[in-house]
Amino acid sequence: MSGRRKKAYSVEFKLSVVSKTETSSIRAVAREAGVDEKRVREWKGQEMELEEMMQKQGKMVCKVRKRIRGGGRKVHFPKQEKLIAERILQQRALHVRVLRRDVARIAKEIITDPHFSASPGWISKFMRRYRFVTRVKTTAGQSLPKNVSERIIDYVTNCRKRITRNQLPLNCIANMDETAVWADMPGHDKQRITVCLAAFADGTKLKPFIVFKGKRIPKEICNVQDAVIRMSHNWWMNEDLTKEWIATVWNVSVQPSTKQMLVWDTFKCHFTSSVKSLLQQSNTDLVSVPPGCTKILQPADVCWNAPFKARYRDLYTVWMSARNHERTKAGNLRAPSKALMVEWVLRSWESVTCDTIRRSFDVCGVTSCDPKVIHCTQKGGLANDAHQRLENLMSQPGDDREKDVSEDDAWSLTQGSDHEDGLEDDVGDSENEAVHSLEID
Predict the structure, then answer these.
(1) Regarding beta strands 284-288 and 260-264, do their DSSP bridges make them parallel or antiparallel, or are they unpaired?
(2) In terms of pTM, does the model score above 0.85?
(3) 368 and which of 221, 297, 340, 362 could share a cystine (Cβ 3.0–4.6 Å)?
């Protein structure tokens, strides 16, 4: 097999080579141009088409374009690709979000060839052939503080100090976060719920705490055993609901006689006197994620929320794809029932693996101070300058590590931020990550 790399030649170059064959032999022209004689003969046979392209598209375009129309490798499954495109258009007509992985799934359903894999390259070329483009919603996400490296060092050292001082095992270290889950359907664009996810560093997951809008819990979900359901006038977590979470989820999962450490963000209702008092009664030590750093230091934000929401969107998309929906008097699709939404939350939370949860505490610096493990302090990361400082910290004896950060410097349970750091920032991130829908260009 020849080791020479294949080359592509522009239309202008091909025509210049063909024109030289009028005064010289094909062999001499091929030798001078540095191409095979076979190529020159092919171009000579395509001379009329090449000249027609030059006249229609202009010299500037033909300096770049390398193929005549219809040239190149042929599509293997043209009929099946047409069916795939029709399926995508049907989904979009129903206002169903279509992701690249949905294209791969639909393609594998229609193309049954065992050698077909719906590779990323095929998906990109298919989208280009049928003029599908990716539509992404963007918002102004959380911006990192200027002193991010110092905050990371203080946070990692504070976690390390508390774990070492209290000799906490992994099943006594936890993280909790509120995340918003939205519905994307005509007539129900603002249909949403708030879900509180919590887990221990050993991979043990706590019951999800789900907040719906309303005053009374509907009968269809009042007897749910695997989740805690509560109502709010605006879906938001507040001080009362936070105390409900402590009473119904946290306190039933811990032993008051055992010291616990709970990591969460600076959402203001996390640090009210009544909330702190309840957690002190359950022997829980609070550690807050530094303000502005939840997207890089909170395990839930970094590792859990994305797969949780991706699974929820998949379940929602399958439901939207069904054709037996009820409709309102206005003609819109009736929103999914609350019981169905609870089922989606449970299945989505179940899909987040225990290994993912265990790793999240390490990569966020809660249970590890190794700069090679913490994702934002790795070389080339967001806080590259913190890498050496953490390496120096690891080389210190245990007692010296505790002296490195004082109680005043550590981001402990001193006070909560008036800015609702946890939920608002997570909503912004979810909009950034969520919508990769296909549209017609």
Answers:
(1) parallel
(2) no
(3) 362
